[in-house]
Amino acid sequence: MNQSRTYNPDHADVFLIGHYGHWASNVNIDFDAYVTVLLGRLHDKSKPHLFLCPSWNPARSRSAGIAKVMTKFSEEGVNIYSVGIERNGHWQSTTPDRILPIPYLVKQSKPLPAIHNLAQKHRISNTVFYAGDSRPNAKRWAGCDRSMITPLIGAPNMQVSLFGKENPGRLNQTQYNLFMETIEFCLIICGDTPTSRSLASSIVHGCIPIRIGSRLRGLCEPPCKKGFGWTPSGKDNPHLPFMERMNWTDFPEVDEADFIVDPMATLQDLFVRLSTSFGKAVEYTWMSFLKLLDDSEHHE
To answer: Which stretches of the chain are assigned E, i.e. beta strand?
Structure first.
């Protein structure tokens, strides 16, 4: 048995509470009775309890019973925390400081030894990749206009595409993975809310993430605005995962307002800084990603 786990509740420092509410969200469940049963099984309410059911919008949170469980646990004095794909209090029904950010679930396209080999693979310098949905509602809900990347489409060293009703040519997963494994940098762009699957994909495939804007750091600087079921979590509660094991300040980020004005010039300026001030930022990123993958494999 892994040394970090125990089946003896007296020896436990943290209790995990599994919840499969999303699977049963279309079934008429008496969540009040369900919570009563859960409360009756708790061993020590004072110890941290981690509620394992992230959500991706307020409606899904309600239908999965997350709000009822979290609210009742708090009322009963349970030392309750939640996991979330971002620190979104509306979705997880708690304060941002009690949400542990986790990445979106992305399947590795290759076994770990092959991913290690990618670290030695030559990638064309200063190449950039992004492929995503245009998310037309994001501008109204969050002040995020993904069309900011359109000046990069077709530019040299830019493998950038935006999909939607007018341009339905979405990449399949194999094509998407190939670009992430061969291109040096991947753009991480806002959406309806601060997070997206792109960051988790870049970690798995070793594409160096360039964050456009400060939203993942919990901030909401122009053109960002509050909207649709989320509010900024604040600089003390960033949405970036693995904070205790990765120093995200060493990873590239550009100002979103500057990027909107001239995305190519903003990236070119970044590449100059990466080759001087950041030193071996790319190598550091690779080592950080690979260590995360190593640790996750060794703790399975």
So the answer is: 15-18, 49-52, 80-84, 99-101, 124-133, 158-163, 183-188, 208-212, 253-254
